[in-house]
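We both want to read discrete structure tokens more fluently, so let's practise on a single case. Would you write everything just below, so we can both look at the same thing?
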Amino acid sequence: MNEDYLDWYGLPMAMTEAIKYRSQDIDGNDYSDVTGLGFSWSGWIKPTNSASIVGHIYLGGELISQNPKRHAKLTGITSI
């Protein structure tokens, strides 16, 4: 895999909110403008017939190759 030609595109999911990465409590936090990256939070959900509360974290997105022919490896070449 040639990582120079791969990109991750995060997609927002319906009925969820994007996870925020910034925090004022952490010194040197350089994630001030980043939100989401494909991760979404459903919030707290109260299930039926259970005395509990759950939350779901979702990851949605696509790994896209800009130039698929650059991901090959040549082997066994003996001449030009």
